[in-house]
Fold:
Amino acid sequence: MKNLQTQQVRALKEGLQGPVILPGDYAYEAARKVWNAMIDKHPAAVVCCTTTADVVHAVNFARNQGLPLAVRGGGHNIAGSALCNDGLVIDLSEMRAAQVDADARRITIEGGATLADFDAATQAHGLATPLGINSTTGVAGLTLGGGFGWLSRKYGMTIDNLESAEVVTAAGEVLHASATEHPDLFWALRGGSGNFGVVTRFEFRLHPVGPNLLAGLIVFPIAEAKQVLQQYREFMDKAPDELSVWVVLRKAPPLPFLPESVHGQEVIVLALLYTGDPAQGKALVEPLFRFGVPVGTHVDVMPYVAWQKAFDPLLTPGARNYWKSHNFSELKDGLFDTVIDYIARLPSPQCEIFFGAIGGATTEPAPDAAAYAHRDARFVMNVHGRWNDPADDARGMGWARDFFKASAPYASGGVYVNFLTDDESDRVKAAYGQNYDRLAQIKRQYDPANLFSTNQNIRPA
Ligand SMILES: Cc1cc2nc3c(=O)[nH]c(=O)nc-3n(C[C@H](O)[C@H](O)[C@H](O)COP(=O)(O)OP(=O)(O)OC[C@H]3O[C@@H](n4cnc5c(N)ncnc54)[C@H](O)[C@@H]3O)c2cc1C
Structure:
């Protein structure tokens, strides 16, 4: 592990409002932890920025000193790209302020905010925009990769709702990117991941949502998985965009509405949210209960913010996580057989395979309308390997990789950049798809020396 020299530390601290955390400091161990406990990196310094000027100073310092650089939003990226070894980490977790203009239906929010920060600010006005399903995820990383969640079928990817961004470039310039200012940079930010600079502030469009919506879970025994999946496929073909239903296959956690006899048993779960009038939603979701004989159901009208946090207890930081992901434009029977086969061999009680239904509004823009290219994806599958003991790494990773290979023949070939692990550099081009070459051109313009390289990297053309 490399340490900065005393005069480097002095120069770094001069001109910064926020603190700098160095190896040996009390706060260092906490500052080098991210959501995924498999990541074990040792930065030379963590700069806790509190203003855009702090970010400019840190970017200039890293560039001038030739140091590796990483940027931390919510610290959720599975690949651990919020951290680097022996370099500088720009930590934005102190920059989380949000301002909502309810009349204009706009939010501006800082680059270190979490989804919980965003939803709390917007739901105070009955507004929202599509975000992910775990409230401690960072708005920044999620948005820069595309972003999808329960509202996406109705209102598109998170990036489809981005109006503008304040960006600190590799040259240390502060730019405002939008459809009319630096439009090429704005195009690249919407799916190009953290390659183009540090986003210090985002501006999003908002939609009237909730605050109370119909949402919940319907749980079936695994023996009914095939019939549930087949009916799910037919159902989603006709479902209105207001309704999102995702499928999760895993061992049942000890949820209060499940009988004790089901806890720890393999189950197939339908998780749903209806963004329209809950009374209409109830009629619409009624057929879902008849896909089999549920072992437990919990579908009710609840605050949107509560549903946005419903999965947090299963997704706490600190576990070892290994993911594998495919996009699908259709779901075939052979895929269902493969999934069921692998669910019978789960390597730990925390592992799961889920299918997030997107489609709807996410498929409307052209694939080159923004850097995010996967407008054909109707389902994003994630094999979520998760366990606590490092001794389980090989078994858990082996299971995830084997299932990934077995399910590949049914996949579209594309992959969501935000679900790539750090050993998947061979899939980076597939993640950016047909937009890779244009991204590489824009990278050359805004970051010719590839200062922002701790990410799913796009090399300057
Ligand atoms: C439990 C869990 C659930 C998830 N659910 C969803 C979901 O429902 N939908 C979905 O779309 N995704 C989901 N994701 C994936 C998530 O979008 C990515 O992990 C994303 O990278 C997280 O962003 P972050 O800011 O928290 O991560 P970080 O690790 O902090 O950052 C991720 C990447 O973005 C860069 N970055 C971060 N902040 C900035 C910034 N301000 N400016 C420039 N670059 C920046 C980093 O350098 C890094 O390369 C989930 C992830 C987890 C762990």
Summary: The pocket of flavin-adenine dinucleotide is lined by residues 35, 70-78, 81-82, 92, 111, 132-134, 137-138, 140-142, 144-145, 147-149, 193-194, 198-199, 315, 418, 455 (CB under 6 Å).
